[in-house]
Amino acid sequence: MPHLAIDNLNADYGATPILRDVDLSVERGEIVAIIGPSGSGKSTLLRVLTGLLKPRSGRVEIAGEVVNYTSAAALRKVRDRFAIVFQQYNLFQNMTALRNVTIAPTIVKKRNAAEVEREARALLEKVGLSHRIDAYPDEMSGGQQQRVAIARALALKPEILLLDEVTSALDPELVAEVLDTIRTLASEGMTMLIVSHEMAFVREVATKVVFMADGRIVEVGPPAQIFDAPQTERCAEFVRRILRH
């Protein structure tokens, strides 16, 4: 049984179709990278999965359980199973790194504060920030802030981590530290869907690459297929263009 199964998913922005008949199967522990031109629906797919945008039609299952996007209670439940990290860090500026990581589990989830703090310290150590626990966002680099955002997402204990262009707002020299954090998570078997334009990283870390264009999944395959022997002309054209730059 797939960890995540998406069947015939459709979504619109107003009257404009943005996802068209999307089918995708993700196994437990897979790292699925989603690539494609701007406006192809990559980020929208992640937002639909978490219920930030309601699908018009289609079916999503997590470990065999159908997600009901029309029910507020069901949406709260599905958001316990997904965690999403956006391009912008969205940290609380008046809180330390540690407090940014602990606030949702303690305030929203009502978990024991001492236990949550122990876990948060371990997560910040995992993302290489044990020395910045008491730092505020304006005292940290963009790469450090993004790693706090990843630790904050992991503190919610998601089954599936969604990463939406998490390096695109960073200066080039800060990208590597965030990618190292994602490599660590991949090595530990976290199921991840990663929207990324870092093609060398995608080739290295992804177990499966999804190429999207015009709101559709055009091609799915291992990195070697997508980058070296694409099966569709649309994918081949995209790869030729990005590899020229």
* Low-pLDDT sequence parts: none
What is the SS-derived class? alpha/beta
State the order of secondary-structure elements, H for helix, E for strand. Answer: EEEHEEHEHHHEHEHEEHH
Q: Report how far the terminal alpha carbons are from each other.
A: 39 Å
**Total E-strand runs:** 10
Kindly estimate the percentage of residues that lie in beta strands according to DSSP. Answer: 15-25%
Mean pLDDT: 93
What gross morphology would you assign? globular
Radius of gyration: 18 Å
How is the main sheet built?
6 strands, mixed
Strand ordering within the main sheet: 6-7-8-3-9-10
- Kindly report the oligomeric state of this protein: single chain
Number of helical regions? 9
Question: What is the structure about, briefly put?
Answer:
The chain has 245 residues and is of the alpha/beta class. It has 9 helices and 10 strands.
What does it look like?
The protein is an alpha/beta fold and 245 residues long. Helix 3 packs across helix 4 (113-126). The strands form two sheets. The chain has a six-stranded mixed sheet, with helices on both faces. A four-stranded antiparallel sheet has the order 2-1-4-5, covered by helices on one side. It has helices at residues 42-49, 72-81, 97-108, 113-126, 142-154, 172-187, 199-205, 223-228, 233-243, and strands at 4-13, 16-26, 31-35, 57-62, 65-66, 82-85, 160-164, 191-195, 208-213, 216-221. It is built from nine helices and ten strands.
Note the topology.
Blueprint: E1 4-13, E2 16-26, E3 31-35, H1 42-49, E4 57-62, E5 65-66, H2 72-81, E6 82-85, H3 97-108, H4 113-126, H5 142-154, E7 160-164, H6 172-187, E8 191-195, H7 199-205, E9 208-213, E10 216-221, H8 223-228, H9 233-243
Parallel strand pairs: 3-8, 3-9, 6-7, 7-8
Antiparallel strand pairs: 1-2, 1-4, 4-5, 9-10
